[in-house]
Amino acid sequence: ESSVLLCLKKRFHRNLIYTYIGQILISVNPFKDLNIYSEDVATEYQQGTLSKNAPHIFAIAEMAHMLSQSSGQEQCVVISGHSGSGKTEAAKAIVQYLTMLYQGSDSHRIRQPCNVLPILESFGNARTILNDNSSRFGKLLNVHLRHGIVVGTSISQYLLEKSRVVFQAHGERNYHVFYELLAGLPVEKKEEMYLQEAESYFYLNQGRACDIPGKEDSRDFLVLVQALEGIGLSDDQLSTTWAVLAAILQLGNICFTSYEKESFEHAAIASDTEIQIVASLLCVSAELLQSAVTHRVTVTSYDRIFTPLSVEGAIDARDSIAKALYYWLFEWLLLRINEWLAPWESDSAVGIVDIHGFEDLGVNSLEQLCINFANEHLQWFFRQTVIAQEEEEYSQEQLAWIPISKMYSKSCLDFLTVKPHGILCILDDQTSLTQATDHTFLQKCHYHHGNSPWYTKPRLPLPEFTVQHYAGPVTYQVHKFLSKNRDQLQPEVLDIFSQSRLKVVSHIFQRAKAAYSQQRELGKRGKGLKPQASTLVSKFQQSLQDLTAKLRGSHTFFIRCITPNTRKLSSIFDVEYVSCQLRHSGILEAIHIQREGYPVRLPFQSFLTRYGLLAGSRPSSLEQREGCAAVLAHVLGNPSDLYQIGVTKVFLKEKARQLLESRWLQRQSWAVVTLQRKFRRFLRRRRLRVLQEKATLIQAHFRGYQARKRYRRLKKTLVQFRTMILISRPLVQRRKRCQVT
């Protein structure tokens, strides 16, 4: 773990935010613009492999595109991470790469998905404690291709957080669209829809954070309107959309009072002003709507029985209507977006999955259990995919596959979902019982799982239980588990809104009514005459199964997004916070799987470039495999269980890599010392030559000086001798004459 953290930290401080761990791409949010997504950068990765260029999300996009054309199998890129880690930006980068480099000559006819992103962000994003623009739904974006050219896109949503419509924690907001509507809608239109300031609505002001610093809701509303008009929404449809949102806000302001009748508590609406406004905005009957909020209808073979609700039950009924209005409006908008983006025809696709990350908050409820269950399921799929990819790589290199010693099972998933006593199964069973409570659900969990290694009871009698997830233990508070799981509108509510005089509202709820009827039919076929309950958990599991089935039929790439710190600063790398995310994302587990075999894999050329000289001589390019074998045999011995040689790569244990590095460093040291010795000898010889030349020059000058001095002395002597001869000659002649005389 420490080596992974050190690697990520060093690269982060050098503005290298992408790192490969096996075939998994780690992306660390830099919280600043690095200018690494330009068209020039994208061109560098075109027609390249993962090992050819530096780690980048464009490399993953290129590989997905390349394999979609060569293998004929659909490709999927799964992006996950904590809120604020950059998942949405990563998805945008992949779409940007594909639409930038693979557009046809008639690209002006292709409608770009970036044009609809303002709609998805306004209706699907909200402020949370960790992120001011957190995506609160999972999405699958399919980029459709024909002969390698982008021809269109389609979007599917998973697990929309409907509970945010009616509840937000302190410091959080509802979905952006509500605040943008109130800030940007013209005054006369706001008066027509009875709209006021955000602080006056219960559904918007629970978090006490109606404004986001740096976000201009009025400007974003204009962008939203432009995007909605761009996908073909008419003025009437836009007005209906604003009316539905206004009605949801009015529903949240409905207050209830209680009165006793026949020793039972009954709920009554304190003021019918809000219910009248809702009925007026949605063009439905106010009396029927009021009855749906305060009564539960039971249909028998002979009659319809109206049972008054308590205040708590009425609040739940009101919130269910609000959540259903928002959910079906979101589904309708997504349908219109897909109709606008739909390709004419395609032969392949690249899917991009953006899903919630593992959550462990101060207070964890049913939403966190569902999210963590989804991550548990995806983590199991991730493990199996990593193992399958490992086995495939060994097979391609014609090496013996080493089975993973630690067999990863679905025990925690079985503990949550196996019938009849899985946690989620118990929750669904208790939800279908009218007399069941959160307490009875908790007691059944304690009874069936008290001795399970995946389950921990509280030491004190508290309404909570702890699940041992793959990323660590998480404690869940069971308060309102059952009421949240009853995610079902009464049939009379569907009838009320399907009879609306607004075409959009009527169409939306007729589709909802058809889906509900189909579900009842399926339930009757499966369980005799008792229809299957439609709960939040059951819908969640169905969505997750659909997503997993799609991933299972595709070749999958994984991108794990990491937040370097909680303060969103560009220069801080919080080691403990990142370490927690690595555990939650399963990266450390993937590393363990790889370490079970041969984690270091180098192509022959790369291996010989670094270690080739360890064999004594560099082999020729035609003998790469034999050269690698010679190096390994010389350093590690032959045979050895520390390495295997494949068709194109050398597979090494970590110990083998360390031995090679140690020998390479020794060779480096020897080479450096040799170079230093040679260079010192060269310097000494050059200095000696200079000294010799100078000595010779000095000697030459000295010999010249000596010769000239001797010459002058000899010349002087000769002159003196001649002078003496000239002087002595007359004397000799006189002496001779004297003798003669």
From TrEMBL:
> Which key words tag this protein in UniProt?
Actin-binding, ATP-binding, Motor protein, Myosin, Nucleotide-binding
One of its Pfam families is: Myosin_head
| Cytoplasm recorded as keyword | no
Membrane-spanning segments = none
Q: What are the Myosin motor domain coordinates in residue numbering? A: 1-665
Q: List, alphabetically, the SMART domains matched.
A: IQ, MYSc
Q: Does the keyword Calcium apply?
A: no
For this chain, one GO molecular function annotation is:
cytoskeletal motor activity
Which InterPro entries does this entry report, sorted A to Z?
Answer: IQ_motif_EF-hand-BS, Kinesin_motor_dom_sf, Myosin_head_motor_dom-like, P-loop_NTPase, Unconventional_Myosin_ATPase
One cellular component term (GO) for this entry is: myosin complex
UniProt-annotated stretches for the region Actin-binding:
544-566
> Family, per the entry?
Belongs to the TRAFAC class myosin-kinesin ATPase superfamily. Myosin family.
What protein is this chain from? MYO15 protein
